[in-house]
Amino acid sequence: MSDQARLSPGDTAPAFDLTSDTGEQVSLASLLSGDRKVIVYFYPAAMTPGCTKQACDFTDSLDSLQAAGYTVVGVSKDAPAKLAKFRERDGLTITLLSDPDLAVHKAYGAFGEKKLYGKIVEGVIRSTFVVGADGAIELAQYNVKATGHVAKLRRDLGLSA
Question: What is the mean pLDDT of residues 30-58?
Fold first, then answer.
């Protein structure tokens, strides 16, 4: 398992400019307006059971996360049209971003070797990052579980679960 591309707290968050589920261009710089922080999470595929659970958990927590100064974006390799279907099907209110060539995944260390059912495969590593208003990584979590992750993240951020 290769860890060299992984980000750590204090690292500068890699910049990105991706297309959202609504067709808008969204950049990390635009999300870091004012003193907002950004939660960027990477997930393997829209409309799969684990990814749906995680996206719904983020949607359910969105109001309180926003009140605490956080913006949430989910990133996958899915096309914007599929992301729009995902949002509509599950009533998601978080912003979903498309990274079809996996360049942003790789910049964040969220794509590479991982264990799947005991085998080492190459794929998306379910990961979550908190980017501070200054553009630095405040929290980097790799290989997170889809279920229960948002509650754990809230605890890690000192927010009530």
Answer: 93
The total domain count for the chain is: 1
Q: Answer yes or no: is 6 within a domain.
A: no
CATH assignment of the domain containing 87? 3.40.30.10
Long-range contacts of 86-91 (CB under 8 A, 24+ apart): 86/21, 86/46, 86/47, 86/52, 86/55, 87/21, 89/47, 90/52, 90/55, 90/56, 90/59, 91/59
Please tell me the pTM assigned to this model: 0.93
How many Å apart are CA 100 and CA 80, to the nearest integer? Answer: 9
**Three-point CA angle 120, 150, 93, nearest 5°:** 110
Catalytic-role residue among 51, 73, 140, 146: 51
- Domain range for residue 119? 17-27+36-156
Considering the domain boundaries, does residue 3 fall inside one? no
**56 assigned to active site:** no
Query: Going by DSSP bridges, is the β-strand pair 25-27/17-20 parallel, antiparallel, or unpaired?
Result: antiparallel
The share of the chain scoring above pLDDT 70, in percent, equals 97
One-letter amino acid for residue 155 of the chain: R
> Would you tell me how many other CB atoms lie within 10 Å of the CB of residue 143?
10
